[in-house]
Write a structure and sequence with these properties.
The protein contains 16 helices and twelve strands. It is an alpha+beta fold and 427 residues long. It folds into two domains: 191 residues, 3-Layer(aba) Sandwich (Rossmann fold), CATH 3.40.50; 187 residues, 2',3'-cyclic nucleotide 3'-phosphodiesterase superfamily (2',3'-cyclic nucleotide 3'-phosphodiesterase fold), CATH 3.90.1740. Strand 10 and strand 11 form a beta hairpin. The longest helix has 19 residues. Bound molecules: adenosine-2'-monophosphate (2AM).
């Protein structure tokens, strides 16, 4: 083994890092190439982005930012190699191991210069708009993780945080035998203590690919244009909204709050603050479907004085990801209370009126569905290019699309913690 292949034993992590900083490290991070160091075969687990053909095809069209996490020796690099092999033509890899970045490097003052090399590769990948970007490191440092998540989000990538599913992933004795850094059980234990296995996102959901998001935004734009040119609609709707401007009512301006990330929320978790979100986040359904491709069926568009949304009709597989108990803002069960079919609330928020939170869209949809279920006849029906637009009173309108829209998505979580702006999600 050459010097670059054989890292010194990190008995004293700080001293070790200082030694390594002086070593001229060859740039082993490569774009679209396999991981440099062949690893023994490790069954790192069944991941849809490796084993599900449909997902592999979709990821080749999407923009996905993989963040591999796990203790040294847990099998991250095997997943990294498999991702590299699967997406050879469209990948940018930033792997810390081949650069000689020790798992203990975060304890060293010089960690910034170590990560500069990884970051350079990530930036290259972003600049080239690679379809897949993979960052392989322990990622047990919360600050570093937040930085990567924000970077991915700012560049409109869907983030997948992937942890190996190996049996020994958190067994320090086993990890000590397997990790290439020859870290001791004690050192691994130190790393493990600061390692939070499940990162609970702000919410889980299906995230639209850029192309589908663009189509959906155009659909929303077309819907608002159609509404703004319909006098009968405007007459009813106008009486239900507060419009403070001197100017004539303008529906596009009224619904100025547009989400920057088009998605269909399955479970709101508030980064772990919502009761029962841990149960959902560690459920079998989430474990099996995280990072999997789904085609959502948008069957209707609706508008109320508060929100504009797209109704999503879930199929049997998609319903597996729908939370058993979905809570309303007041803590009550939203669907059970209304006696509507399971998953009725599923939707994509397209726009909100000023001061309205996007959470309102699902509640507005449930209200319309409840009125329909109760046998209420539409107060008005208008023929439109999208289908029959029905009014259920108080500015609530819905149109069942004559041509339902299929949107391509990946199931993941929304992780950024940045303060939302008007255009961004999380509000
Ligand atoms: P939405 O799915 O209707 O758009 C972040 O705020 C996302 O989670 C939003 O998109 C929002 O609604 C959804 N959300 C926010 N708070 C929620 C809550 N308490 N229950 C369910 N969904 C919520």
């Amino acid at each position: 083994m050459g010097r670059e292949d054989q890292p010194p034993t990190p008995r004293d992590p700080v001293a070790f890092c200082n030694i390594r900083c002086r070593v001229q490290v060859k740039n082993l991070i490569t774009m679209g190439e396999k991981h440099s160091k062949p690893k023994p075969h490790v069954d790192c687990g069944n991941f849809p982005f490796l084993n599900d053909n449909n997902t592999v095809q979709l990821i080749k069209e999407a923009h996905t930012f993989f963040i591999l996490r796990g203790l040294p020796g847990s099998g991250k690099s095997t997943i990294g190699s498999k991702i590299s092999e699967t997406y050879q033509a469209s990948i940018a890899c930033a792997f810390a191991d081949p650069l000689g970045i020790s798992p203990m490097v975060e304890e060293a003052e010089s960690s910034d210069s170590w990560y500069a090399k990884v970051d350079e590769k990530i930036q290259e990948g972003l600049k080239e708009m690679r379809k897949v970007i993979v960052v392989d490191d322990n990622h047990h440092n919360a600050e570093r993780l937040t930085y990567l998540i924000d970077l991915a989000r700012d560049n409109d990538y869907i983030v997948l945080i992937v942890t190996p599913k190996t049996e020994w992933k958190d067994n320090c004795e086993m990890l000590a035998k397997k990790n290439q850094w020859k870290l001791s059980v004690k050192q691994l234990d130190t790393i493990k203590q600061g390692f939070q296995e499940h990162i609970i996102p702000y919410y889980f959901g299906w995230f639209l690919l850029r192309k589908s998001a663009k189509e959906m935004r155009e659909k929303a734009e077309g819907f608002l244009n159609l509404l703004s040119s319909n006098d009968e609609f405007l007459e009813e709707f106008r009486t239900n909204v507060q419009w403070h401007s001197e100017e004539e009512f303008n529906i596009q301006e009224y619904f100025q709050k547009r989400p920057s990330v088009l998605h269909c929320t399955t479970k709101f978790c508030g980064y772990g603050t919502v009761p029962d979100c841990e149960l959902y986040s560690s459920s079998k359904a989430v474990a099996e479907n995280y990072g999997k491709a789904f085609t959502l069926n948008v069957t209707a568009l609706f508008v109320t004085p508060r929100t504009v949304g797209a109704r999503v009709l879930l199929d049997t597989d998609q319903k597996l990801l729908w939370p058993r108990k979905e809570l309303c803002e007041d803590g009550s069960d939203s669907e059970e209370k209304t006696d509507l079919p399971f998953g009725s609330r599923s939707h994509i928020t397209l726009a909100c009126a000023p001061g309205v939170k996007s959470l309102q869209t699902g509640l507005d949809l449930l209200k319309i569905l409840k009125l329909m279920k109760a046998g209420n006849k539409p107060e008005q029906q208008l023929e439109t290019a999208e289908g029959l637009l029905c009014c259920y009173g108080e500015g609530r309108w819905i149109v069942d699309l004559t041509k339902p829209v299929e949107v391509k998505t990946l199931f993941s979580g929304f992780y950024p913690k940045k303060k939302p702006t008007t255009e961004s999600e999380g509000n």
